[in-house]
Amino acid sequence: METTLQIFRTSYAFRNREFPIGKGKALQFIYGSKQSKTKGGLNAGTATTNVYRSSTFKAEMKAMQSQCCSPDEVIFGPDFHQSLYCHLLCGLIFREEIQLVFSTFAHSLVHAFRTFELVWEELCDDIREGVLSSRITVPSIRAAMSKILKPNPELADLIHKKCSGLSNWYGLIPELFPNAKYLSGIMTGSMEHYLKKLRHYAGDLPLMSADYGSSEGWIGANVNPSLPPELATFAVLPNIGYFEFIPQRLGNLESQVLCIEPKPVGLTEVKVGEEYEIIVTNVAGLYRYRLGDVVKVMGFHNSTPELKFICRRNLLLTINIDKNTEKDLQLSVDEAAQLLAEEKQEVVDFTSHVDLSTDPGHYVIFWEVSGEVNDEVLKECCNCLDRSFVDAGYVSARKVNAIGPLELRVVLKGTFQQILDHYLGLGAALSQFKTPRCVGPTNKTVLQILCNNIGKSYFSTAYG
Ligand code: AMP
Q1: What angle do CA 304, 297, 246 make, to 5 degrees?
Q2: Is position 215 within any domain?
Q3: Does ligand 1 come within 6 angstroms of the Cβ of 432?
Q4: What is the extent of the structural domain holding 425?
Q5: Using CB atoms within 10 A as the burial measure, which of 114, 298, 306, 341 is most buried?
Q6: Ligand 1 atom closest to Cα of 211?
Q7: Where is each GH3 middle domain found (predicted)?
């Protein structure tokens, strides 16, 4: 709690200097996860659930003018679909007061407004009549919402008019929340894919990439909030933990030949332009814990390094001599998605898989696409994906057919929602959800969901 508040206060101070917010509330798409008890009798749940429940946290949020506009019953409701609907409804009811729109990860912001596109008329009906939709069945949520929801036909008409006047939902967020100053959430790393859609909904509202941390502990604050998320860096808070950094570049010839991992260096010994894996020692009781993230040092804020998040360390895609990370996959998907943009379509979500059941093995990329796209364009996207993996190992293995042609499988609409529902069913929290960017052979359920929903499939001809 203490370190969470410390980093929230720090980044808020920097943010508020450039983007001051007035008296009001925040529309926060936050959700509690199921809690369980360990054998020893301790409460267990996701890190964010623990934070949102705390009264200290609530008091601090109020002090930062960022109090969540939804009641606790909505945040901690047992069904996230119902919670999301009510978050949206609360946002609309308090629309004039909303100062910022937040979720932990950008994925849930996009998810929320995609849902809004589907339920906005129902939300308007609820506001008009002052009666909550019958889709909300949880008694505690109904009771809490009945205290807020009153018949307001003028507000319902206004929202209806605003939504009807939008072109393809461009600029939806500032239309709904006229006093919102910015959107906030983690928008870097695996969340970058959602930026395009987020910008579409945000119109001219700035996007503020939130801090860098993990359930295991916080690392750095965004002290340059006016930079676009693509350029966001995080200044390490030196007193929030003890940090060491493993250089990613193998140093001398000997260590290269023997593949010995270089020795970790301290916070003040890192070099600008170099990439490192982070090791954390902190008050949570972790001792020299490898977080698994790779970061790049972009500069220094006073004497503390400013880090750019690069990727998870684990390689995502590898068959033999090829090495492709999450970032490589994202770049390749971004490149190919440009061909879709020409058709006014977009990649809703994506993941990947290494298929070793064929000989040679090959990469499979799963795409969910927003609308209909003809075969020729998708075929070209498939070739483009294959060509865009520029790792020397991949290219040379493809050339000699030691890796087979990349396969693009276009899945049916709603497939990624099914994957999300699957994880939530296992007790994951929507607040911390990240689409897995690679599905391994042991993840049978997700692989099954993907394979049961294949609409079309294409093999690359990029290498002849
Ligand atoms: P969790 O374990 O759910 O708390 O997620 C923590 C992981 O999310 C980190 O190890 C990172 O891989 C990723 N993450 C957290 N903050 C950021 C950020 N600001 N930018 C990019 N990735 C992040």
Answers
A1: 95
A2: no
A3: yes
A4: 316-459
A5: 306
A6: 19
A7: 235-312
